[in-house]
Amino acid sequence: MDSQTYDEDTLTGPFIGFVVGTVLFGLTILQASQYYFQFPKDSLFCKLKVGTVCALDVSHFVFSVSLFHANFISTRWRASGSGVLVKNDWSLKALSMTQTLLIVLVQIIYLQRIYTLSNIPALNKKTFTRIMNAVICLIGLCAICIGAVFCYKVQNVRVAYTAANSGDQSWVIYLGFGAAACLDAIIAALTCFVLHKNRRDIGLGYISRRSNRLLLSLFRYSLATGILTTLAATLVIVLYLERPTTTDYLSVTFITTRLYTNSVLSFVQNVRRQLNNQDTLGTIGMKAPAEIVFTRRPENYRRRPDIETPLVLITDSDSEFDANSQHLSVYSPYYSPLQARKRQIEELEEIRNNLRSSLSSTLNIWFKGSINRRSSL
After folding, report:
1. Across the chain, what does the average pLDDT equal?
2. Which of 279, 268, 267 shows the shortest CA–CA distance to 209?
3. Is the distance from CB of 60 to CB of 95 less than 8 angstroms?
4. 54 vs 265, 351, 371, CA distance in Å?
5. Over residues 7-24, mean pLDDT
């Protein structure tokens, strides 16, 4: 049996990271069970996404236990003067691949949400939608390609180690976690930008309290999760740069996947609660009867600083009926910006349909009617 020379720096970092990761894994199980029990009527596609993320997180936890047991308890982790060697490295390779797949999947889920928010015709023009779609595709391709390169290089490593002379494989860590940090920051910034734009285009004076609460909640969750995952990936690089002969950077990898998984689960549950008109305590919001008609308050009343004016929702049918009865144009302040844009689109479609019908009727008369075609030219 090989002689073992453990020091405190070899065991402390991975042990702390493993304990924290285990606690976060329990939180993952709790949030997953809450999601499936509280929202059984959710779409199958969303359930599959949540289930895939949880399955990858469970696999990552199993490989973490195997790595920790094989290299710290069964004495296969040998510390030497040049670094720390791992003889049985299959668990470390499986751990790295599972973590990469999970990170790429979570990033694609957030990109899909950005795609949904940026492809609302009533709020976004075609030019903006095309630009956002191109940016989303570019970010997704970068995430997939970098993840594939990282997994390929990890699988080709014969003996995983951290040593001062391991510069041949250091760029893999820099590429993988550096790209993850950059992509997380970009995705968080894009999500916040699209949410702010949609909220502004709807109109702060016309948006309902429920919609405003939903958009602000999405904004906060996107910003918080983006900052948290970016800091975690950056911390891995910093620890590897500062202490390359230790395994301190592995302690963060035990926690990183839990952060991604819990961010997705909390994000999905929060959106579902807001859509079901529930607050954080689980109380159901009150709904107004259909006979009540809400109208916009006067500008002088809305600008009074000593009165808190709640945001109310103006339905399309009520506002259009009142505006049409008063013969108002679409640019009247009686319409919200969202309703004005909707009316403009409807008027353009009506004009196009009228032109097509008039052109087709003229051609039918000219070809089928009993007239002198030569004189009509």
Report:
1. 73
2. 279
3. yes
4. 9, 52, 75
5. 78
Q: Which residues contact 232 (CB under 8 A, 6 or more apart)?
A: 252, 255, 256, 259
Q: Would you tell me how many other CB atoms lie within 10 Å of the CB of residue 27?
A: 14
Between CA 338 and CA 204 the distance in angstroms is 11
% the chain with pLDDT above 70: 62
pTM of the model: 0.69
DSSP type of residue 296: P
Residue 136 pLDDT: 94
**pLDDT above 90 for 105:** yes
pLDDT tens digits, one per residue of 177-213 = 999 999 999 999 999 998 888 887 776 666 667 777 7
What distance in Å separates the CA atoms of residue 18 and residue 373, rounded to the nearest whole number? 88
Question: Residue 37 and residue 90: Cα distance in Å, rounded?
Answer: 36
Whether the Cβ atoms of residue 250 and residue 43 lie closer than 8 Å to each other: no
Contact 270, 217 (CB under 8 A): yes
Residue-by-residue DSSP string for 159-218: S-EEETT-HHHHHHHHHHHHHHHHHHHHHHHHHHHHHHHHHHHH-TTTS-HHHHHHHHHH
CA proximity to 91, closest of 170, 29, 160: 160
Count of Cβ atoms closer than 10 Å to residue 250 Cβ = 24
Residues 6+ apart with CB under 8 A from 74: none
CA 41 to each of CA 159, 266, 272, 291: distance values in angstroms, whole numbers, following the listed order: 48, 18, 11, 30
- Cα 195 vs. chain centroid, distance in angstroms? 12
Which two three-digit tokens encode residue 104?
């790429």
CA distance between the termini of the chain: 104
- 74, 76, 79, 80 alpha-carbon torsion, rounded to 10°: 150
Domains of the chain: 8-275 (1.20.1070)
Single-letter code of the amino acid located at 363:
L
- Name the DSSP class of 281: T
Q: Which of 74-78, 89-93, 327-331, 344-348 has the highest mean pLDDT?
A: 89-93
Q: What are phi and psi of 105, to 5 degrees?
A: -65, -45
- 24: nearest Cα among 282, 275, 253, 278: 253
Confidence band for 219, pLDDT divided at 50, 70 and 90: confident
377 pLDDT tier (thresholds 50, 70, 90): very low
Cα–Cα distance for residue pair 96/86, rounded to 1 Å: 14
